[in-house]
């Protein structure tokens, strides 16, 4: 039945990987299609996809790890760590950034016309520093913000004294055995077993792996596989990574979202009994669906711009009720 649901990913097309986890163990672990069309490389469970906004749950975990160590508080003002932010950010707290209630401007709307070089986190910070305004007073509304999570990565770096990718590697990925997972920086790191992103261009597929905003880290820059994400999922049950109180904060509704049926925690969406997050950027569409009461998780990673995998993940989850 899963093969049928995943039929469009089979063959010489951009592919997908699916994992169903129960009690921390993979009961389904499958790959479909190709990770690299030009070289004809098949996807496998070890294929690493750009997680896009699925990254946000890991960035939030990094903040909570630092809070546990007393190196920051989620009630710190963002300007404590990023003092060059404009005065419009005076009241923005770390918790507002985590819950998308900061009112910080979307950096995508501030990119200068004609820019061709990719933006990095420092570039985003500079763009935000130059605009002394916000969408609304912090804490009063929800507006999904990639800018906020890019700022959080910078907060992690400042509070820990460690480069954000290095902090993730030493404090999260290596302890959990996520050996192939990386916050990717071109020229500074490599992605093993890398999937490249594609978009449909009429009857053909066109490689659309990167764009101007694909090099930022805290909002979407992690590459990982279903095998490594199974280890991530297991750690969210057994306390190896975060204390129970930190997990409760991550999974608690911190804000209403733009969908009346969905609330937002720290890097997680909450719908009914599900904790989930999608991730989409040019050439990639992904989703993780966790059902803690059932101890069941469904992960779908794809290296194509469409379709959205959320309905497919829901259908797979229904098979394991």
Describe it for me?
The protein has helices at about 1-5, 55-70, 80, 95-100, 120-130, 145-160, 165-175, 225-240, 245-250, 310-320; strands at about 15-20, 25-30, 35, 40, 50, 180-185, 200, 205, 220-225, 255, 265, 270, 275-280, 285-290, 295-300. It has one domain (about 1-250, about 270-320): 3-Layer(aba) Sandwich (Beta-lactamase). About 30% of the residues lie in helices and about 20% in strands. It is an alpha+beta fold and about 325 residues long. It starts with a helix and ends with a helix. The protein is globular, with a radius of gyration of 19 Å. Helix 2 runs parallel beside helix 6 (about 145-160), helix 2 (about 55-70) crosses helix 7 (about 165-175) and helix 5 crosses helix 6. The strands form four sheets. Strands 2-1-15-14-13-12-11-10 form an eight-stranded antiparallel β-sheet, sandwiched between helices.
Kindly provide the name of the CATH class.
Alpha Beta
What is the architecture at the second tier of CATH?
3-Layer(aba) Sandwich
Strand order in the largest sheet: 2-1-15-14-13-12-11-10
Q: In DSSP terms, counting alpha (H) and pi (I) runs of 4 or more, how many helices?
A: 10
Provide the number of structural domains: 1
Report strand %. Answer: 15-25%
Give the terminus-to-terminus CA distance.
14 Å
CATH domain topology:
Beta-lactamase
CATH homology superfamily name: DD-peptidase/beta-lactamase superfamily
Number of strands: 15
Form type: globular
| Assembly category | single chain
Structural class label: alpha+beta
* Helicity range: 25-40%
Task: Return residue spans where pLDDT drops below 50 for at least 5 consecutive residues.
Answer: none
């Amino acid at each position: 039945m899963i093969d049928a649901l995943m039929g469009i990913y089979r063959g010489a097309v951009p592919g997908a990987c699916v994992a169903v986890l129960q009690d921390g163990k993979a009961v389904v672990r499958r790959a479909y299609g190709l990770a690299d069309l030009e070289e004809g490389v098949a996807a496998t469970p070890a294929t690493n996809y750009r997680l896009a906004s699925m990254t946000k749950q890991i960035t939030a975990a990094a903040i909570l790890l630092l809070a546990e160590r007393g190196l920051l508080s989620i009630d710190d003002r963002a300007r404590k760590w990023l003092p060059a932010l404009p005065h419009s950010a005076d009241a923005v707290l770390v918790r507002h950034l985590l819950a998308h209630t900061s009112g910080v401007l979307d950096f995508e709307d501030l990119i200068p016309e004609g820019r061709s070089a990719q933006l990095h986190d420092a570039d985003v910070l500079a763009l935000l520093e130059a605009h002394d305004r916000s969408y609304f007073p912090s804490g009063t509304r929800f507006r999904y913000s990639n800018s906020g999570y890019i700022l959080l990565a910078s907060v992690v770096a400042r509070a820990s004294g460690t480069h954000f990718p290095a902090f993730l590697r030493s404090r999260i990925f290596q302890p959990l055995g996520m050996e192939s997972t990386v916050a990717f920086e071109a020229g500074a790191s490599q992605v093993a077993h890398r999937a490249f992103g594609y978009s449909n261009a009429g009857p053909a597929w066109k490689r659309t792996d990167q764009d101007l905003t694909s090099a930022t880290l805290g909002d979407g820059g992690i590459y990982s596989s279903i095998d490594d994400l199974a280890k991530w999922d297991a750690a969210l049950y057994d306390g190896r990574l975060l204390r129970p109180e930190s997990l409760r904060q991550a999974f608690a509704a911190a804000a209403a979202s733009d969908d009346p049926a969905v609330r937002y925690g720290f890097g997680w969406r909450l719908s009914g009994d599900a904790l989930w997050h999608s991730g989409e950027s040019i050439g990639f569409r992904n989703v993780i669906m966790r059902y803690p009461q059932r101890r069941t998780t469904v992960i779908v990673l794809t290296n194509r711009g469409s379709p959205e995998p959320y309905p497919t993940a829901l259908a797979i989850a229904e098979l394991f009720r």
